[in-house]
Model the fold of this input.
Amino acid sequence: MTPKTEAGTGAMETGKEQGLTLAEVRRNLQGVKGKKYWRSIDELAGTPEFEAAVLREFPDAAQEWVDPVSRRGFLKLMGASMAMAGLAGCTKQPDEPIYPYVKAPEDLILGKPMYFATAYPFASGSVPLLVKSDAFRPIKVDGNPDHPYNRGTSDPYTQGTLLDLYDPDRAQETTYRGDNREWTEFMMTWREKLIAAKANGGADIAILSTTVASPTLARQWKEAQALYPKAKFVQYDPVNRDTVRTVLGTKDVQYSLTGADVILSLDADFLSGSSFPGFHRLTREYSERRKLASGPEGATMNRLYTVESSTTTTGLKAEHRLALRPSEIPAFTAALAAALGVSAPVPSYGWTDAQTQYLKAVAADLKANAGKCVVIAGEQQDPSVLSLALRINEALGNYGKTVSFTDAINPMPTVQLAELKGLVNDLWSGKVDWLLMLNTNPVYDAPADLNFVDAMRRAKTTVHLGKHADETGSITDWQIPASHYLESWSDARSYDGVASVVQPLIDPLYKSHSAHEIVQAMLDESTKTPYDAVRETWQPLLAKSTDGKTADFEMNWRKALHAGWIDGSALPTAATATVAAINAPAPNSKDAIEVQFRPDPTIYDGRFANVGWLQELPKPVSSLSWDNAALMNEALMVRSGLAEQDIVEITVNGRAVKAPVLVLPGLPDNTITAYLGYGREAAGRVGSGTGYNAALIRTSETMAVAAGASLKKTDGIWGFAVTKSHYQDHRSKFFGGEGTGNNSLEADEALTRGIIREATLGEYKANPGFANEGETHPKVEREITLFPNWDYSTGNAWGMSIDLNSCTGCNACIVSCYAENNIAVVGKQEVRIGRNMQWLRIDAYFEGDLSAPKAHFQPMACQHCENAPCEQVCPVGATVHTPEGLNTMVYNRCVGTRYCSNNCPYKVRRFNFLLFSDYETESLKLMRNPDVTVRSRGVMEKCSYCVQRIQEAKITADKENRPIRDGEIVTACEQACPASAITFGNLNDKGSRVRKLHDNERSYAVLADQNTRPRTLYLAAVTNPNPALEPVVEEHAPTAG
Amino acid sequence: MAQIFDRSSNALARMSLVLTGILVIALGVTLNELQRSPWVTRQGQRADQPVPFSHKHHVQGLGLQCQYCHTSVEKSSYAGIPPTKTCMNCHAQIWTNAALLEPVRHSWATGESIRWIKVHDLPDFVYFNHSVHVNKGIGCASCHGRVDLMPLMYEQNTLQMEWCLNCHRNPGKNLRPTSEIYNMAWKAPTEDHPVWCSVTDAKTGVPTAESVSCVTKDPTDSGPAMASLDMPATPGAKDAAPGAMVMPASLSYTKFTSQKALGDFLIDQYHIRPPRQLASCETCHR
Done:
């Protein structure tokens, strides 16, 4: 590495050219007294780009035609639409055919959706589901409300699996070296091989699979192993649970946050997505302790400490966050363990005063709450962290209270990396003749040092079973289309150890097959279907009598399918387990740049790369969509002579990758976070060519962290699609703006106008009405308006309440909204110019120092204002107020003036600048929600409070002559939310949950001074900081400059 | 220079102005009429169906009830087009060789659907729900006309928005007792043909029809025994021993001699939403 000072000086100059220097950013921050919110680094620095952006309603170039469509094509289109314009009302509808059934299926009532329980088998534990099926097409994936594990909630990945099913780029045919073949031909070849291999016990057969979630597949393999004792079965996922396996062997750890007053997360990102096992339950239990339902008197809350090496929502939700470099965390854990009486060697390290103070405070708090606290360790960390964390829990008496153990929920728990290495060795030594790869993509994601591609070519026959002909499938001999989990039978266990049957919702769309069939082929009954295999697995349990009477397998089986889980299948739990004592390694030198590899918050390890919803979903904290980046703090960036969007060559372990640079506030110094899953070459039309492949510098020795990276600026600018500062306000001082023209609507006013309101628990108790006091803008009385007030004395009045204390910013609501409301994916270029179509966004407001920010997450969708500015300016009455208080869009009236969007202070309206909806792709038509219009070009759209669900409930209630029950209408976002942060209901119903929440003293309206009188109110956040611990302001600034 | 235009051209010029005005108005009127014309709305047009299915024969002639084929009309947004199986229930036995039924037999033999042409075709941005209409007192014939008199199916009404709103703004004029939904020949009550309705224990949570009972014969003529057949059991019936004969509570029928009076009564009884809500955009568009 070059000396720090030199790098620093160089950096300042380069930085200045880009208009963003640390010094300027800091100067901007210094001038501000008290709280100051900001939304992006650009904003703090006042870059020219940002200043230009604030002058526009939609971001730069949003109104230009930037598609790769020729001018001629454009004129052609325009000509056509001109001709149509005047006659649109007079055009005759073409004849539409009806194709009735020949024999109608039993139980089907066309137009009435059916719901089937199933489960999504995921590596971190399956997600129990209730899937909505319209005419036998799955159209919405949601959590199973009856299942005790997730209680109806879901997460972004699970929601995204729906689009994965209908992905038009899925492999459709079995191929052999590129030629289409029949499945039976493969089976014949495979059986022939098996017969030939019988003699040597299958020694030259190896199977490489994704983490096996299915007990049936495990059983099938066990039986196959008896016949072919020398055949190998290896599991590998680039994001795996080797840490747990190393520490706990075949046990899994389960946390319960219900009884936890103090939570310490050690690089455990358990609030941002299901890549952390138990996400749904942990988030629910975390937020349940923050609802403050009983009011200010005697209010209690949990307290979350997060020590982390990246910036995650878990860290930003924490009362006290400490950013440490990845390699410092084991040592910190060891020091904490020592302070709590665990005998483990502590590597000596020069902690700063703030870090020591933090450690002392956490230790004291944990000690004071022994038995009522929990220490959660991240799984992408050194195994010593989990080992030490568990020993701390034991020392604190948390075992059996907040921490318990079960058998591993994955039926074949192994240390995957070691197994993969063994397999690669076997391949090199020529021991493997047939290599079958099941639902895995090792060519793309195996550790770079194993050189898997070349090793794989040593096998004579390679087979890939995969949903896509991906990087692996495109070079194997056989490529067999794999069935989606909604297409084939299987089973899996959720985090709580309860097994669910994975029930298909639809016949395979293509000629696809499942891993069960390939392994079953090794057995005597080689063609047994997955359905029969799954039934066979559970036959002993389900045929067992539960009530002493004769048991009926068929009935119990049907019960299990109906309920969504198998009664009595839960794994035994234990209060203790044998924990391998692993000592913390010493941290790396403070000068060494560490690169840490994490599963991507939206596309995981790349398996969702071709899911447009998840690609376009802005990642929590960074708001980056369509790419990953070399995320670093600005100190490292400036010191390395870089600017945002620069392409940097990261060299580590002798391997290099070119990655674009993006600042992630709150990252520790000399740390780069690299999300896996990008840089795919054969992902499909959506996922190929996005981001860079972090796996290229990830070796088997450095699966979690690679230290000693060097950075080199290369030519070129990347061009990110960051959705942060899209919505600008451009008012002068006179109209309440800051007048500098240098602030986004949200950030500048978040504080002055109380967009975000927050208090500590003590402040809340002393002053329960804090959320509605001290407003800088006077509250406008209801009567003062030019427009007549609506009368809601009878009927329903819909409203929503969003609890900012519960929301963890996990994004599940947004993806749920995508699926429910047929929202279009627009692509990276369109997102860059601010045309993303999500009806719901989660605004992140940062506060405080760049290196140790606090953040507030605020879901923002149409507020359904009582006095809606959009309605008043629509010249064609396309957005109107309904008698039940909805602000509704009538798409067929909209002519696309965009006045409404211009006049909306919340900036929640979305305009179809182009024909974003896919009208052509056949498979996507099956996915659409038939109750929601697929919007065309030139139409404005926005959150409708899921009006189709409201109407459905109204019709049902009307037919039954009764009022709508509270909780009968659940909006898509509310349904998905693991934290139950969103509540929807009837404000006229005095007993409804939403009415009570609106009456809560913490409820406040965003931009209330505009007299828009929104129907969505927010519950102000209350935090529970440790008085012994001042906010940690840890400056990771370069000494120079 | 001589004048190019004679004085008389002034008259022509004036006339041309008037004519232009008339032309513009005429064009507007024409477009307006065209827009509402059967050419656009298909009102009254008989589509070229694969089988010339006669509702008249099956409904009036044979007395099939609507729901024999349109099974989901009370439950779902779609009334339902019958599967080939429904046709074959009878036509496996009768008219088995009729040339007209060849498409039906072909469908049955090959498993391919019969390709009907949609007669009542709403635009895709309209979300119409059959079930709520038939459950709330709108009869089939109110929208579809006298289907029992149609040898070939056609669209009786325009199904345009103004036509929908006509009723949504004043639903009372088309309401009928739910017991008469499938009665094609139902006529609004008049002095000569009054309707008698009674209300029993208006409960919530039960289908509309359960609390209102209407008859077209004077219930006082046929005596309480006759009327009791139309009556649901009285509230006390639940407590009575099973099988016990329970006499209906004293009946109080109201006589209606006009659609206005009946409509107002049914709006009240069926809890029909007020016009302001029924005519609100989100009722049909979302």
